[in-house]
Amino acid sequence: MTANPGILIRGARLAAALTERGAELSAAAPVDLRIVDGVIVERGTDLAPRAGERVIEADGLVALTGLVDLHTHLREPGFEQSETVLTGTRAAAAGGFTSVFAMANTLPVQDTAGVVEQVQALGDAGGYATVRPIGAVTEDLAGEKLSEIGAMAQSRAQVRVFSDDGKCVHDPLLMRRALEYVKTFDGVIAQHAQDPRLTEGAQMNEGALSSELGLKGWPAVAEESIIARDVLLAEHTGARLHICHLSTAGSVEVVRWAKARGVAVTAEVTPHHLILTEELVRSYDARYKVNPPLRREEDVLALRAAVADGVIDIIATDHAPHPLEAKECEWDAAAFGMVGLESALPIALATLVNGGHTSWAELEVLLSHRPAQIGGLTGAPIALEAGQPADLVLVDPSGSSVFDTERLRGMSVNSPYLGMELPGSVRYTVRRGYLTLDDGALVPEATVAAAARAAGATQNGAAAASAAEHSEVSQ
Ligand SMILES: NC(=O)N[C@@H](CC(=O)O)C(=O)O
Ligand SMILES: [Zn+2]
Ligand SMILES: [Zn+2]
Questions:
Q1: pTM of the complete model
Q2: 259: helix, strand or coil
């Protein structure tokens, strides 16, 4: 029956066991994990290898449940010169991600059941990661009329997260209606908080430096005022609100206040807003042009502290690939956005774990459990123990290396970290019991696609097949 003889991981340290900030790896006992047919079937010590089993020696490696990115731009359909679902999920696997939520700013926009189902199917076929499409809040992201939220939620893609990301849902009545709508099925609105009037033509963080450089400023209040409004709307409607890419100290204070009031708000921060500052804009190198813009050192420190004290719930990459010509131009003409899937874990190590702001166990929550929970992702593990789905990542936290284009596995190279020395590396990614990243090398497409098909036939396949039958009957 078992086509796949399984995997035995020996001597890994579980992130979940490293609960103290600043703890050495030796604070956790090494454990072995046996994986068969997409499930962790055994956890113990000194497990004996079985015939045909792939043995991974994980001494010195940390095991986390597979990373989940709530904010990825996969660009397909429409912008395949930047990324495709396949290339973006390869980048995800290289970064230790087993699931990604794909933003809706594609062409056509992910604002119908047909488009979200297409994106999800492309993810399923590739097999490098679970792709959960995000639905647009408004038709064509135009901010004028609500999209087919219900149809997307009921589609095979079962959309739970809705966002006009790239654009702010600015009309307060539309925002209110969207929140009311998603509340009926426990969905969530992920807001790109940017007041469009306050940021017309804006190019970088507003302050002394923007004046000095002669670039139009993007004030912190453009973000903070939308967050303040939306947490009040979330409180009023009782719906779940998620704030994308928090970038200012003031935003942290607004979210802190909202949480203290009991509002159902969650917040994300990107790796780049945890490490980079506006000073980089002095170079006029458009790799540093991003939305929201890089802010001041004070903001970076406030964001790290907010992760440490739980005001910020998750880290999300906002992986935003762009072709060279969109970046190798004058600052004003360049596109906003940075790739981030492959660098997320090293940056999180550099800024949070190695800095003593979070433990490994907290990092696993920030990059895996909590984003899964916010996005309503089903079938993701909540612990690496027997009976759980085998989505996991093995990370080598030791050493550091220069981050170069070799490390980028998507189509675009607009990373702000090229040439920087970053700690740690992702060694193995296991999705549904099969390898997508093997000792730092991506597993070939045909192998992964075949493994995904086989995995579909055993576990989730049963549910998917019955859902498909059901939808055929009901059509
Ligand atoms: N973050 C970015 O700078 N760009 C994103 C849009 C967005 O996330 O707002 C993109 O789609 O390129
Ligand atoms: Zn955005
Ligand atoms: Zn985005």
A1: 0.96
A2: helix
- ipTM value: 0.99
Predicted confidence (pLDDT) per residue in 432-459, tens digit: 999 999 999 999 999 999 999 999 876 5
Say what angle helices 220-237 and 249-260 make with each other, to 10 degrees.
10
List the structure tokens of 217: 């400023």
Of 37, 69, 299, 318, the active-site residue reads 318
For residue 345, which of 246, 428, 452 has the smallest C-alpha distance?
A: 428
Sheet containing 161-162: order of strands = 161-162, 188-191, 240-243, 265-269, 314-315
318 is catalytic: yes
Residue written as tokens 């509002």?
263
For 237-280, what is each residue's pLDDT tens digit? 999 999 999 999 999 999 999 999 999 999 999 999 999 999 99
- Ligand 1 atom with the smallest distance to the CA of 320 is 12
Start-to-end CA span in the chain (Å):
34
Alpha helices in 200-268, H assignment, sequence order: 208-213, 220-237, 249-260
Contact 206, 194 (CB under 8 A): no
Phi then psi for residue 318, to 5 deg, are: 55, 40
Distance CA(313)–CA(382), nearest Å, equals: 16
- How far is 181 from 183, CA to CA, in rounded Å? 5
Q: Are residues 264 and 239 in contact, defined by beta-carbon separation less than 8 angstroms?
A: yes
Is the distance from the beta carbon of residue 73 to the nearest atom of ligand 1 less than 6 Å? yes
- Cβ of 323 less than 6 Å from ligand 1: no
Please report, in range form, the residues annotated as the binding site for substrate: 73-75, 105, 291, 322, 336-337
- CB of 336 closer than 6 angstroms to any ligand 1 atom: yes
Ligand 1 atom with the shortest distance to the CA of 105: 11
CA distance linking residue 397 with residue 391, whole number of Å = 19
**Ligand 1 neighbourhood includes 291 CB (under 6 angstroms):** yes
Does the CB atom of residue 141 touch ligand 1 within 6 A?
Answer: no
* CB contact set of 262 (below 8 Å; sequence gap of 6+): 235
Q: Which tokens hold the place of 312?
A: 């910020």
Q: Would you list which residues are annotated within the binding site?
A: 71, 73-75, 105, 165, 192, 245, 291, 318, 322, 336-337
φ, ψ of residue 325 in degrees (nearest 5): -65, -20
Domain boundaries 64-375, corresponding CATH code: 3.20.20.140
CA of residue 336 to ligand 3 center, whole Å: 10
Q: How far apart are CA 359 and CA 109, in angstroms?
A: 38
- At residue 411, φ and ψ (nearest 5 deg) are -90, -20
pLDDT tens digit sequence for 343-356: 999 999 999 999 89
356 within 8 A of 22, measured Cβ to Cβ = yes
